Structure formats: C-alpha cells, structure tokens
Amino acid sequence: MEIKQFYDKNLAHASYAILSENEIALIDPARNPKQYYDFARENNAKIVAVIETHPHADFVSSHLEVSKSTGAKIYVSKLLNPHYDFIPFDEGDFLKLGKITLNAINTPGHSPDSISILIKDESGKDYALATGDTLFVGDVGRPDLRESAGSIQKKKEELAKMMYKTINEKLLKMSDNVLVYPAHGAGSLCGKTSSADTFTTIGRERNSNYALKQMTENEFVNVLLKDQPFIPKYFGYDVEMNRKGAENFEESISKVKKIDSYDDIENQYPVVDARSKTQFAEGHFPGSFNILNNTKFETWLGAIVSPFEKFYLVSDTNESLNDLIGRTAAIGYESNIAGALVHSDNGILVKSGEMNFEKFRKNPSSYTIVDIRLNSESDGRKIFKDSFPIPLNELREKVNDLPGDKPVVVHCQVGTRSAIGRSILEKKFGTQVFDLGEHILEFT
Description:
Layout (H helix, E strand, L loop, with lengths): L1 E7 L4 E8 L2 E5 L6 H9 L3 E6 L11 H8 L2 E4 L10 E2 L5 E4 L2 E7 L8 E6 L5 E7 L2 E2 L2 E2 L15 H14 L9 E4 L17 E2 H7 L8 H9 L9 H10 L4 H6 L16 E3 L3 H6 L14 H8 L6 E5 L2 H12 L7 E6 L14 H6 L5 E4 L3 H4 L9 E2 L2 H7 L9 E4 L6 H12 L3 E3 L9
Parallel strand pairs: 3-4, 4-5, 5-6, 10-13, 15-16, 16-17, 18-19, 18-20, 20-21
Antiparallel strand pairs: 1-2, 2-3, 7-8, 8-9, 9-10, 11-12, 13-14
Helix pairs in contact: 3-5
C-alpha cells in the first residue's frame, strides 16, 4: 500500500491517491487531474474510485471528470445528494482496493454530509484516516459554511454540536497510532489551523489539539465558533458546483478568450490585474483591482469578485497569465473571465499616487486612514486612533461609507494586502489613495 499526498500550497489543499495492487482510489482530488493520471501511469495502475469527503467550499474537485475519463466510480455520502451518478458511501459501507479496505465513517460537523475514510492495511488493521475537513493538524473544520449552501443546510451552532459528537464518539475512540490525512493545512479558510504540518496522528491530536480537549458541549461550541475567519463570496458557489460536478478542466480553460489590448475591454466589467504592486502603480487600466499573483490569489479573487460576475484578467507574461487562468479554474471562476491579456503600455492607463511617508508620519490626522485588517487580526483594536476599520473582504461594498475630504491611506497587518485595498479605493478617490505597505510595521 502507498498513500501519496498531493499538496496545493495556494489553497492549502491536500488530496490523496491510495495505491494497492495496481488499483488507485483518489480522495478529494483538485480541479486539474493531470497529477493523478501521471501517478497512475508511473505505477502502471488504474484509478478505480474517487471519494469525496463532502462538497468542498474552497476549491472545485475533479471527481466527475476523473470518473468520466477513467471509468472510476464516485463514492460520496448519500446525504450529499449529488447531481451525478454515485455509489452511496456511509457508515458501514466499505470498498475493497487491492489488498486493503476503505471504510466510510460519517463524521458530521464541518458539514452535515461529511465522511472520513478509515484505511485498513493488508492485515485488516486500522492504518490511517482521511478526515477531509473534519480533523486538521491542531484544529477541526469550521461549522459555519453550510447555513445557506448544500443539499442539507444547518445553523453553525447545530453543526458545532455535531462536531462535538464526532470527536467524542468517533475520533477519540481510535488508536493513537492511526495516521491522520486531512484535506487542508495552514492557511486554509476551512478552519483556524496554523500548523505547517500536513499530516498527523490521532495520538498527537488527542494530546495537543484544542478541539479534542475534554470540555462540555457548550464550552466546545463557544470555543469552536470563536474567531473563525471570514467567508469568501465563492464558498457557497463551490459547494453547489461540487454537488453538480465541474466541466473538464482543460476543455474549460481552453474557452477563456485571449484579447490583445486594453482597447478590447468593455467597461461594465472589472479588471483583475495580478502584476506586482510596483508594476501596477506605474500604469494600469482605470478601476482595476490589483489582486497580486501570490499564494493567496484564489482566495482574494473569490473574496472580492462575486461568483457570477464577469471580469478581465491581466498579468505580465503569457506564462503567468496561463497559470492564473488555471488557478482561477481551481475555484470555478474560469467561465467568469470576459477576456485575458498580457499587459502592455498601449491604451488608456493611469498611475497610482506616490505617498510622502515622512509627511504621513508627522501628521497622520491629515489623512483618512482605512484599516483593512480582518476582524480576526484586529480584534477591535486600532493602530491609528481615528482610522476607519473595514475588512478587505468588505471594502468593495463599503467604499461609499468613507469621507472624501482628505487623501486616503490604506493599511493591512504587514503590508501584503494593502495594494488590493488601494486599488479598490482608487476607483472612487483616484490618485489621492496611498498604500502604507510594509511601513505599517513601524507603527505596530
């Protein structure tokens, strides 16, 4: 038996290929299935099963594409109620894979339809548990993503209580040496996890995971619901897309229209410019959003642009543009791209204003200061006394709440997201918007 983990650091997503006797079962595969086909070919094996632990909110799975391409059966909980052919996989159900067995365990909490996969080795011994978004390294899945999405919708308090039962009646009854393979690692918005590790053991979590400590149900609910991260706009959309099954990855991204210049842009759609903030400041299409090409591109694209909103995508090279199109497809947004282009200096471009940092240091009260830190970062505490706290994920909708009588300075926690905030505010305030950037560290 081999368990191969595939890790996408951009979405902090882990998927798995389980190999035994030339048969492979995939668990929670990413949108682009090429890596799984390569693994199967390298091992002279056949993908015979695809298992979804739940309908994911933060990425689009390739389960339907893999099934159509390989003939593999899709296994999900019947509670998921998908729109594709599947084999129900719930408590008591099992799948023989070569010389090993995969057993379904219903583990509701993150979602009502969550399952975990108990992997038994050739001797029938419990070896590993693929936990999806139920159990992470140092955390458990958040319970507040299914209040208005999915076949079954439940309040976060009810799901938190389900998670409490899952932990105490199922997870904590397993042996300490059982390996735990979660669907996410540090940086995922599906929980509060901050560990750099991408797998663990039941024993380690029993001893160190705050959510597995002994406490009452009410205590657990309060602890779990506290300080959960924000919910991007695309999460509910992806739940439904995964229940339906996504279009073939390569076929879908091939439909993205490439355009030659900014002259081809229709002004009713926003422009997402993924170049560096320095390049953006030197010249960009008016009203563009500067969502940087870094490991959080998908997250902020799906937090600022709505699921059914058309947009243009700009990058600095054709190679990076193609990469961004693929990453856009990872959250199911590729069909939203009205056109994709490589930046050039031709067309109507504007520059961002240049900030005088010394002037700001001496008299910050002469500026309207916008604090775009997330609620979980600021905890209600201001860095500048008279600043306007508006989390970045809410800024586009609340920009009109800001006064326009002073130049505007925007800051985040450490300077990595303030460029996005500046670009959003520029649409209203023009060149009188300034990015404090990493200079924020001088004030904290």
